[in-house]
Amino acid sequence: MPQCRRTRSSLHLFGLLAGLCLLAPAIADQAPVRVQQGNLVMENIPDIPPEVRERLRQYQNVRSASLSDFGPDGGIYITTRFGETSQIHHVARPMGARRQVTFYDERTGGASVRPDGSGQFMFSRDVGGDEFYQGFLFDPKTGTSIRFTESETRNQGFTWSPDGDQVAWASATWEQPDYTIWVADPSKPDTRRRLVQAEGATAPREWSPDGRQLLLGRYISINESRLFLLDLESGEMTRIQPDRQVAYGAARFSADGSELFVVSDADAEFRRILAIDLSSGEERVVVEHPWDVQAMDISPDGKLMAYTINAGGVSELHLLDLVSGQRRSGPQLPAGRIGSVRFSPDGQRLGFSHSYAGSPGDAWTFEPASGELLRWTESEVGGLDTSRFRAPELIQYTSFDGLEIPAFVHRPDGDGPHPVIVSIHGGPESQARPGFSSTYMYWVHEMGAAVVVPNVRGSAGYGNEYVNLDNVLLRENSVFDIGALLDWIDQQPDLDEDRVVVYGGSYGGYMVLASLMHYSDRLAGGVNIVGISNFVTFLENTAGYRRDLRRVEYGDERDPEVREHLESISPSNNAERITAPLFIIQGANDPRVPASEAEQILEAVRGAGGNPWYLLALDEGHGFARQSNREFRREAETLFLTEVLGLDP
Q: Where does the Peptidase S9 prolyl oligopeptidase catalytic domain lie (predicted)?
């Protein structure tokens, strides 16, 4: 049993304090021995056989690289992992050697280069996955970095002024729902100046071209956000389009600052690009597709727009000439996923990250003038032959009420019948999209399991109506979508309906527990990673800065009717219905889903006669970021899956 310490994490994270110090004595007589190995605490997990570790080795050593920013020397900065955690690296030329720049035990966010030619860049870093991000400025001339944010705060929205003299950002404390907007010269932290105390989850989005205004965005829900212009001299905040309840994505000023280009779902089912005249408030449609527009950037001269759309999960990159209004050819890429797009400071190159079935993710650039597409990195794939890694099949199945649910299916070779792993995404306003997954490929090629990845109702990417079909009192309808998927599996001759496991993290972890609650007689087991086990305790104990955001989706537990409903559908109150084998995985420092959610479902299932496996990482948060922890987790998951699916380890 690890010793309980009154650190910031344990004080803020009721789960660790309650789970490790308060709950354990009450169940000590019936609980398995809790074993600690380094920072990993576990129950019921057998010793990992060497052959399991060996079979996983190649798949565990897959890496990816994502483009962060352009360097003043013509090279790029990327984030990738060559040790325990992701760090910042520099690449001088396409396919050149990467040079590591930051060397921390903790993961770092990407580099954002200071636009003054100095070569300095800022980045963020948290501790143990607590998501209390701090801002740092790195100087390549001295090789040193300094922190410019206040400790004991969570910071986000770091944005450079056009001349690079200042950076703006937002901060909040653990229980504070409102964010404070700051500005400072990051090389002189004592110049830090408070601009305004904003309402809700408000953060800087972009500076106006003349540096006199700051665009702020407040996130309320996936269906509602607000934009404000903050006058830096007067401190006055003016809401853009105050009479509209819409959602905004990416936002960019026009070159002269007279217009604002925004990704928005205003008067539309899917997100498109609008131009808002900042003087008159009038808007015009710039780009529209029958799918959501996602990333967007504008060249420094204001003449060219680059944007991506999410076409049923597959990214498409488009270019638009803002002078002529004509679309221009974009690069031809394998069907996959594209991250954010950004123009170089001279506007000659467009940078982005791209992954697909045969590549875990790499940095690319495209030159619109010449049409030249350059790949800058080729990430290691552990020596695997990725040519056999095929893109999944897109299917649709009919749910209990006639709604069509999309899902991606990875099938192994052979006639089957194959065991099935149903992988459920988190969010819930997220979307499973085809790309590279060493986890899925291991299950398919080494375990011979089919992998089915549904986008149940409530998923993003399919329009506003679809994303709202699971809100508040409709929550369990998304669980019934899994029941309908089990019906679909029953009808597939190459799939074994008697060997199906559900697997998911965060909200997907709740879906695992709820699926076991409803369908334990049809499931071989479930793996719940940082999942919600009781919506009321989750809302009461999640970090204060995000509590109101989650109430929009799940309901306000302070309302008696809503509270009664949330209690009735929560797995921890229905543990006697969870009879299939269960593996619970949790990070102790998780600010989103507190560790108490894992401890209480562990206690409840055990009290109902179950005997779950349990893994707690004391140096992780909402998911596992450290490579050694990830390796052990994958090994333990593999052992659990082979056991419940009746496979050879």
A: 436-646
Q: What are phi and psi of 518, to 5 degrees?
A: -95, -30
Pairing of the two strands 525-529 and 582-587: parallel
What pLDDT shows up at residue 30?
59
Where b means 16+ CB within 10 Å and e means fewer, 377-389 reads: bebbbeebebeeb
Write down the residue that tokens 């409530």 correspond to: 458
- What is the structure's pLDDT at 32? 86
CA 203 to chain centroid? 18
Which one, of 262, 260, 228, 267, lies nearest residue 248 by Cα?
262
Question: What would the pLDDT profile of 365-394 be if each residue is shown by its tens digit?
Answer: 999 999 999 999 999 898 898 888 999 999
Q: Which CATH class is domain 8-60+384-644?
A: alpha beta
Q: Look at residue 324 and give its three-state secondary structure.
A: coil
The predicted pLDDT at position 649 comes to 62
Report the DSSP pairing between strands 418-424 and 450-454.
parallel
Q: What are phi and psi of 431, to 5 degrees?
A: -155, 130
Enumerate residues 6+ apart whose C-beta is below 8 A from 370. none
**Whose structure tokens read 């204060």?**
544
Edge-first strand order for the sheet with 350-356 is 336-343, 350-356, 359-367, 372-375
Structure tokens at 430: 């997220």
CATH classification of 241-380 is 1.20.1260.10, yes or no?
no
Does this model's pTM top 0.90?
yes
Helix, strand, or coil (residue 395):
strand
Sorted by where each begins, the domain ranges of the chain are 8-60+384-644, 64-147, 153-235, 241-380
The beta-strand segments (E) located in 376-449 are: 393-398, 404-410, 418-424
List, as one string, the DSSP characters of 186-211.
Answer: TTSGGG-EEEEE-SSEEEEEEE-TTS
